[in-house]
Amino acid sequence: MSLPRILGTTLETIPAEIPYLSIPKSTSFELPLIPEKKFKVGICWPTNSISSSSKLRSCPIQDIQPIFNIQTVDFYILQKEVSSTDLEWLNSQTKIYNLGSNFHDLADTAAAIKQLDLVITIDTVIAHLAGALGKPVWVMLNFDSDWCWLVNRKDSPWYPTMRLFRQNKFNDWQGVCLEVAESLISLLMSLEKIERPSKTASVKFPEYQAKLRERFHRAYQNYQQNNLPEADKICRQILA
């Protein structure tokens, strides 16, 4: 841990040549064969339950619903541990595939990640593994996140393909997940993987729409209270 000081490393000179990990030749993990070619997103929302910081870093599955509701995406669970309550709900879904139960080690996890288009995860080993493999990865961070993610930035000097989504207040996973859902929809639109707004009148995102309405009311409340910077910030998020 003293080497950066001894070597005079700065944020601008942190070594970030990726990928710096590769898949062992003996590993041959394959994603399930899916008839439709949809955008493939790996996802991880809890940490290891025995971790002392698990409750802070883990995101409740109900808060991820705006992300799961995006219709043109297939989701692949990357964590090995899924609670019985979460599993009961997941078993009723047709576009969410539980890979974690088939992983033998991190080499299998890495092989699965390499076959995905994007990884969305909380602060866990999956984030670092995807970053080291050079895979696009979005990390959802708790309000008082670990020091390695620094502060007041949406990128990581260690992982050029990483984007950070931070809680604006303690335990606000709903806000983070809504921001991730908005960003994913924007990405899919830019890749023409989803219809543009003018053509999506028949597409229903009930929970997503409810979150947007709630966000608009918060913006209006801030406007009425003359808190214009916060109102402006929320409105820009809605427009995005």
Written account of the structure:
- With 240 residues, this protein is α/β, with parallel strands linked by helices.
- Helices cover 36% and strands 12% of the residues.
- The protein has nine helices and six strands.
- The chain has a six-stranded parallel sheet with strand order 3-2-1-4-5-6, with helices on both faces.
Protein topology:
Elements: H1 3-7, E1 39-44, H2 54-57, H3 65-68, E2 73-77, H4 84-90, E3 96-98, H5 106-114, E4 118-122, H6 125-132, E5 137-141, E6 162-166, H7 173-190, H8 206-224, H9 228-239
Parallel strand pairs: 1-2, 1-4, 2-3, 4-5, 5-6
Keywords:
240 residues; alpha/beta; Rossmann fold; 2 domains; six-stranded parallel sheet; 12% strand; globular
